[in-house]
From TrEMBL:
InterPro entries: Macro_dom, Macro_dom-like, Mono-ARTD/PARP, Poly(ADP-ribose)pol_cat_dom. SUPFAM superfamilies: ADP-ribosylation, Macro domain-like. Keywords: Glycosyltransferase, NAD, Nucleus, Transferase. It comes from Gopherus agassizii. This is Poly(ADP-ribose) polymerase family member 9. Belongs to the ARTD/PARP family. GO terms for cellular component: cytoplasm; nucleus.
């Protein structure tokens, strides 16, 4: 027996997803005379407990199909633009194509599913020796699971060194639903060392099974992909054969099987799923469940519908009842005569005379004047048993009640025996003279009632409609769709089953609605809402085939960038640029897919421009932080280049007086304060203090600083915290005094500029900052619009009126500030 795995790192608990209140953020930059240049590789230190939230955004099938081609680009763009994680939820629901029960009740099954969303206690990752999750399944799991997976992987390598082929390492699942991720290193295929490759793959699978089978690890289900069949080049059919044969040997040779009860072979692509299914059928035998199709379907739309509720899976398929492979099929018998009726005669013809002999023998033991439920063997049928429903001569007295009773007793028979599946034909329409719509109502309602009465009973129920009965099939489909909508969140309408062994996770999964969607995950509600609005704008392209991108970083596009925009127009889209009121916008129009592709490319381009501008500004600020050092300019630029500025966020509790004071102030403006945070940016503060100190010496006795407000889009808030205000972030609708950085004196004036957007999303982010009104133009190249009636040697702010002032700093891209507050506010009628 191969040696067990080397060991596993202890997982760190993943962050919860409980929603937290919306935010109002206060930032206070402490005065620092000579801040040190931070050398850390991060820019934010938070003293808050930042819990994660998630938003589910349903999308259409057409948009989903386009986004699947751009999934990686979508994730990167949402992360760069909003700081959120975006997960594209598949329209294809999990599909189980094979299931077989082995020794001690161990189930092995084959699934077509996305591993990142598969329901199992442990997921297996096909990793490399260094646990660098840089591509394929490893990258998908790392992105979906969050940074904890990479962090734990890094710690494992630091403690234990690199893995050798066949070994495993275990980490937590991060934000995935699984308990553990088992990282295994499969062999790289070599045609000259094929036997060694097969043995090493066997070792890897055995190490996985030994880990999950250990009771102390509490793993009841594990999902295993086709390890090494991807970029490692292991031949697919041989890979599937080795994996299935290893599982079979492990289960059969274990003297006393341990903890794991379900082994799922999970892959997302059709060829791999088909190969796994073939290997299982060859080595383990025919599946225990009815084969829905001879081959794995290429599209989820080809699959029969099903409803999953409390572990019971109800399917509607078209076929012949006598050909079904479920454990039990139900027969409808008239007056103890198996040769009467289309259903019974078809079953008898295929099963053979032995079926009739056993049926007659059992029938004689029961009274003749009541409905009988007789269980016989299947004989020549593919099923194990046949449950015969024998209608009495009085069956038509209350037809609906009789059919309800018959369905209920059939299901109770299943409850009395450990049968995993049952197939029903359309029973009762001939004998009970019920119309097809009534039969469909009763049969479906009885199965769903049984599922609710016996939660946790794993059972596949098939309603088999004859291919020639199109009207009956339509009636069942209508009732089936109605049941889906009525069940709503209680049922999972999918095309497979959830065989997870954890009842709590199973209930959670069954409560989720299926269908294509984007899940957004982040720790700031304002950025989640901004990302949600952006995605909804993308979805609106489907109707108008048009999208407008408003972003003043368009002004900073280079000649090379404009050439790239021109190149896009060769792919069927038209792009026009417009500048209105100091705001730049691009209008993209064309076919749906081409417009979305172009929008993603342009948004990524603008994010890169934004990042370059941010880096230049931070470099300037950091260099100013070294003005009093002895570094020559050349060495100073080298020292600050590429260094990230560090700032700190900490919360202001709602019981504090400073919170209450500002809460009252914003309530007067019709705004609800949701959260306050303090921001400490020592470099930004130091730059401001030097300006302030310089100006104070020339304006003795006059006020040189003012508390002002500015609304900033959520996507730019972190940039303001890092490098101060920039005029590209938040230009007003009308720039009355030219290009510059605009502020207002009173929170009430914020709504004049933001009313249109607030009506849409109700969340706004506002900064309160202490701004120096006497900026020295010859030192900082700053000037301001000023009031000529004032007898000042230095310019001052211009105002629109004495009470509601609009002020602006002009001829500069950025404004330094000392104390600033970021408010995330709720605006609208419903503020409770």
């Amino acid at each position: 027996m191969p040696s067990p795995q080397r060991g596993a790192s202890q997982p760190a608990p993943g962050p919860g997803r409980a929603p937290h209140p919306l935010t109002f953020l206060r930032a206070e930059a402490h005065q620092t005379s000579n801040p040190e240049t931070p050398e850390e590789d991060y820019d934010l230190v938070s003293s808050m407990d930042t819990e994660e939230e998630s938003l589910i955004i349903p999308i259409t099938k057409d948009v989903y199909e386009i986004l699947t081609r751009q999934e990686s680009c979508l994730r990167d763009l949402i992360e760069k633009k909003f700081g959120c994680i975006a997960l594209l939820k598949s329209i294809r629901c999990p599909l189980e194509v094979y299931r077989k029960t082995l020794k001690e009740g161990i189930e092995i099954s084959v699934w077509m599913d996305d591993m990142t969303r598969h329901n199992a206690d442990a997921l297996v990752n096909a990793a490399n020796e260094h646990l660098h999750h840089i591509g394929g399944l490893a990258l998908a799991l790392a992105k979906a699971g969050g940074p904890e997976i990479k962090q734990e992987s890094k710690r494992y390598i630091e403690c234990h060194g690199t893995l050798t082929t066949g070994q495993i390492a275990v980490t937590g699942g991060g934000r995935l639903s699984c308990k553990k991720i088992i990282h295994t290193v499969g062999p790289r295929w070599s045609v000259y060392e094929s036997e060694r490759c097969c043995r090493t793959l066997e070792v890897a699978i055995i190490n996985i099974l030994q880990y999950v089978n250990a009771p102390e690890n509490n793993i009841k289900s594990v999902a295993i992909p086709a390890v090494s069949s991807g970029i490692f080049g292991f031949p697919l059919d041989l890979c599937a054969h080795v994996i299935v044969q290893t599982i079979k040997n492990f289960v059969e040779l274990a003297p006393l099987f341990g903890w794991v009860k379900e082994i799922h072979l999970v892959n997302v692509d059709e060829p791999t799923v088909a190969a796994m299914k073939r290997a299982c059928e060859k080595l383990l035998g025919r599946s225990d469940i009815n084969s829905l199709q001879e081959t794995v379907p290429a599209s989820a739309n080809q699959l029969p519908d099903s409803i999953t509720i409390n572990g019971l899976h109800l399917h509607i398929i078209r076929g012949q009842i006598e050909d079904q492979h479920t454990a039990i099929i139900v027969n409808s018998v008239v007056m103890n005569d198996l040769s009467r009726g289309n259903i019974s005669s078809a079953i008898l013809k295929k099963a053979g005379s032995s079926l009739q002999q056993e049926f007659l023998c059992e029938s004689q033991k029961l009274p003749p004047s009541c409905e009988k439920f007789i269980l016989t063997k299947g004989y020549n049928l593919a099923c194990k048993s046949v449950l015969h429903v024998v209608w009495s001569s009085q069956s038509s007295s209350d037809s609906r009640k009789v059919l309800k009773t018959a369905m209920s007793k059939c299901l109770l028979k299943i409850q009395e025996h450990p049968f995993p599946s049952i197939s029903f034909p359309v029973i009762g329409s001939e004998v009970l003279h019920l119309v097809k719509d009534e039969v469909a109502d009763i049969m479906i309602d009885q199965v769903l009632s049984f599922a609710k009465e016996y939660p946790g009973r794993k059972l596949d129920v098939y309603f088999v409609i004859h291919p020639n009965n199109s009207f009956v099939y339509k009636a069942f489909r209508t009732k089936f769709d109605s049941a889906k909508s009525k069940l709503g969140e209680y049922a999972e309408c999918n095309r497979s089953g959830d065989l997870g062994s954890r009842s709590d996770r199973q209930a959670e999964t069954e409560n989720k609605k299926t269908g294509p969607a984007i899940e957004l995950i982040g720790n700031r509600c304002e950025t989640l809402e901004a990302a949600k609005i952006w995605i909804k704008n993308i979805m609106q392209i489907q109707e108008s085939h048009l999208i407008v991108i408003e972003n003043n970083h368009i002004f900073n596009l280079s000649k090379k960038d404009h050439a790239e925009l021109s190149r896009l127009q060769h792919f069927g889209v038209s792009i026009s640029e417009e500048v209105v009121g100091g705001k730049a916008r691009l209008e993209i129009q064309g076919p749906l897919g081409a417009v979305i592709d172009a929008a993603f490319m342009i948004e990524n381009l603008l994010c890169d421009v934004q990042e370059n501008n941010r880096a230049k500004q931070e470099e300037l600020l950091l260099s100013e932080g070294h003005l009093e050092t002895d570094y020559p300019p050349e060495r100073l630029r080298e020292k600050t280049r590429g260094t990230k500025m560090r700032y700190q966020i900490s919360p202001v509790e709602s019981y504090c007086q400073e919170f209450k004071d500002r809460e009252k102030q914003f309530e007067k403006a019709g705004l609800r304060v949701l959260k306050i945070e303090k921001i400490h940016n020592p470099v930004l503060s130091a730059a401001f203090q030097r300006i302030k100190k310089c100006v104070e010496g020339k304006t003795i006795g006059k006020q040189i600083c003012h508390r002002l407000y500015q609304r900033v889009p959520a996507q730019f808030c972190s940039l303001v915290c890092r490098a101060g205000f920039q005029r590209t972030y938040s230009p007003p609708p009308e720039q009355k005094y030219g290009a510059g950085i605009y502020f207002v004196r009173n929170p009430r004036n914020l709504m004049e500029d933001t009313k249109e957007k607030c009506e849409m999303d109700h969340l706004i982010c506002v900064f309160e900052a202490e701004i120096n009104s006497r900026l020295l133009q010859n030192l900082w190249d700053f000037s301001v619009i000023y009031n000529k009636s004032m007898n000042d040697s230095f310019p001052s702010f211009s105002t629109t009126d004495s009470l509601n002032a609009t002020v602006m700093i002009t001829n500069t891209e950025v404004s330094f500030c000392s104390i600033f507050y970021k408010f995330t506010l709720w605006w609208g009628d419903k503020i409770s």
